[in-house]
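Per your request, structure below.
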């Protein structure tokens, strides 16, 4: 099964009425006025994929910003609910009249059977004969196409189509959409709706491409560091160190500062507008004056000295880290006591410090008291109480030597194989995503970072980790088609990484972990280097004129192994191969030289003018010297030198 064509009519964007053929097996054309769909087979059938047995093809969509690339990806890749929200079938805001949002995607099934999904099936001429009452929005139907008469005939709804007594034909293809995540605060992003793709029962499933959590990235890094197969396509071991840092509660709480400071007698506004905690009063609140907060025992010197140091309160770095984390959680809920029904301001309701039993360690004694306080405040069934409990259990399994001080854990690549952080990061991810059932996000108290990694390397890892976690563990039918949509994946890449991206991507998808599916890859890009890795038949250039009319043309000359300069001019619609400022700078130099060339009949008696021209030549030469080495610079210097020599000859004649 294969996606072969996408048509975008009016969808409430600045671009409309264009189609893209995404297959080399067929030629497809759609006439929006008549609704006639033309499909012809590629009789030569000379094209075959060059990327390997399970890479069906790679289509590249290029063009200037604003020409509709992302709109095409959204219509194909968003789930049914998200698409209906972002592109409603009817919307009065499209114009003064109630226009319809029109789009459809066409798929080849087998023989002369095709499938089509989209809005408003009557926009296809052969579907006008079908009663609209039977077709819901969005629709997904199968039809048989008569190539001789160039007309289709409705066969069945997609989910009911069973050729050769094979059920669930719509399960033989699914989408995975990697979106560009470089969002700006002032640009409205696509609204993502959580939950299962509600349209997958009747059409092709859109797999929800979750953003990578801490655990997903870490798991990928483990395998990338120690799997020979991973190493073969990454080419190098990621040079990163995973750190988990403990934050103080006052550095996290940023809202309702005034309200908090008025309801808590141990916290006040600082000179700089933030929060400051009186550690002695806070300790009195938590420990009834029996103990001090962990941070009270820490000196600046102790924060930077070696591992396995024991603090003055008898706690190792590991146990001090855990106790300090619990103290911050308890302090948070005390600071926000107005939000809870428990009268925790009443001393009798707050747990008293129990006498330390001989068989109890300092650590277990404090931990027990802090959990008792949390239980009194929140109740033992509260989700935040359970998250804190799970996190502490995870922290206790991490080896002592990975705690570099009482506020930080560090795991180097050499220790990644041991995977000590897996359960902890899984719990932090769950706390982050489960925003409706708890009050605090524990990731802010345990801040996880991947240090020693560039932004480009991070994006490369993010893409492959997403594929690894979304596809590698997917349960779709073996040999199904995965339409993989990558929207400008190379943003932030060094040019060399853009150059090798398609090779590494195809090698990865052909690996033993990923090769159970067949991949149709569709990429949008602004990289001319990436264009030189794709055959010209697979490059679709989208342009838009001043009135918003969109034109799609396949690259006629440039593609696989083409030169970058040729690709830039032809495929990316650039007006020049040079930067606009640099081009203007050179044009000014050319005009100055031309003005000198126009100077005629200067007498050797006119020494002042001659000297001025010679001086001006020196000034122009200084400008030319700022240019990069190359043909243009050499030509300008030679042209300028001729004028300088001419003026000198006149002067000394």
């Amino acid at each position: 099964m294969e996606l072969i064509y996408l048509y975008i009519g009016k969808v409430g964007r600045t671009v409309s009425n264009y189609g893209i053929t995404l297959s080399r097996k067929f030629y497809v054309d759609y006439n929006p006025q008549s609704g006639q769909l033309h499909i012809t087979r590629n009789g030569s059938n000379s094209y075959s994929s060059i990327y390997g047995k399970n890479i069906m093809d790679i289509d590249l969509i290029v063009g200037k910003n604003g020409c509709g690339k992302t709109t095409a990806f959204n219509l194909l890749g968003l789930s049914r609910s998200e698409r209906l929200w972002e592109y409603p079938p009817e919307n009065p805001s499209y114009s003064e009249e109630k226009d319809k949002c029109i789009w459809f995607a066409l798929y080849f099934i087998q023989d002369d059977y095709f499938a089509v999904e989209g809005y408003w099936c009557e926009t296809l001429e052969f579907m006008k004969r079908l009663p609209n009452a039977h077709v819901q929005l969005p629709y997904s139907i199968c039809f048989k196409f008569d190539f001789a008469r160039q007309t289709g005939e409705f066969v069945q709804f997609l989910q009911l189509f069973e050729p050769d007594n094979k059920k669930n034909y719509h399960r033989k293809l699914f989408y995975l959409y990697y979106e560009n995540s470089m969002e700006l605060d002032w640009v409205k992003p696509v609204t993502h709706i959580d939950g299962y793709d509600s349209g997958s029962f009747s059409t092709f499933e859109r797999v929800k491409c979750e953003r990578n959590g801490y655990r997903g990235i870490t798991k990928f890094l483990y395998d990338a560091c120690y799997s020979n197969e991973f190493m073969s396509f990454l080419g190098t071991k990621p040079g990163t160190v995973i750190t988990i840092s403990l934050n103080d509660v006052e550095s996290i709480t940023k809202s309702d500062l005034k309200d908090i400071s008025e309801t808590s007698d141990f916290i006040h506004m600082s000179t700089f507008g933030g929060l400051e905690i009186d550690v002695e009063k806070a300790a009195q609140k938590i420990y009834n004056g029996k103990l001090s907060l962990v941070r009270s025992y820490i000196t600046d010197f102790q924060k930077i000295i070696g591992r396995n140091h024991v603090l003055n309160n008898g706690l190792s770095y590991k146990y001090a880290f855990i106790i300090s984390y619990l103290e911050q959680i308890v302090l948070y809920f005390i600071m926000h006591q107005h939000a809870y029904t428990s009268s925790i301001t009443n001393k009798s309701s707050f747990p008293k410090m129990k006498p330390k039993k001989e068989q109890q360690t300092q650590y277990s004694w404090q931990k027990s008291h802090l959990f008792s306080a949390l239980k009194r405040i929140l109740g033992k069934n509260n989700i935040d109480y359970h998250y804190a409990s799970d996190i502490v259990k995870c922290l206790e399994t991490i080896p002592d030597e990975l705690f570099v001080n009482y506020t930080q854990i560090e795991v180097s690549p050499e220790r990644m194989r041991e995977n000590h952080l897996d359960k902890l990061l899984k719990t932090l991810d769950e706390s982050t995503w489960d925003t409706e059932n708890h009050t605090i996000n524990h990731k802010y108290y345990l801040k996880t970072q991947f240090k020693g990694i560039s932004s480009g390397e991070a994006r490369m890892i993010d893409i492959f980790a997403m594929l690894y976690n979304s596809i590698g563990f997917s349960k779709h039918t073996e040999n199904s088609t995965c339409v993989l949509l990558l929207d400008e994946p190379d943003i932030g890449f060094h040019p060399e990484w853009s150059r090798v991206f398609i090779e590494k991507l195809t090698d990865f998808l052909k690996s033993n972990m990923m090769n159970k599916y067949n991949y149709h890859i569709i990429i949008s890009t602004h990289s001319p280097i990436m264009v030189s890795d794709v055959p010209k038949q697979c490059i679709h250039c989208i342009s838009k004129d001043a009135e918003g009319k969109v034109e799609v043309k396949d690259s006629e000359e440039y593609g696989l192994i083409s030169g970058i300069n040729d690709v830039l001019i032809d495929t990316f619609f650039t007006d020049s191969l040079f930067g606009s400022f640099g081009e203007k700078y050179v044009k000014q130099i050319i005009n100055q030289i031309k003005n000198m060339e126009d100077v005629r009949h200067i007498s050797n008696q006119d020494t002042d003018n001659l000297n001025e021209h010679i001086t001006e030549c020196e000034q122009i030469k200084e400008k030319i010297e700022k240019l990069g080495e190359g043909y243009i610079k050499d030509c300008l210097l030679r042209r300028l030198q001729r004028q300088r020599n001419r003026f000198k000859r006149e002067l000394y004649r």
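The chain has a mean pLDDT of 77.

Regards,
D.
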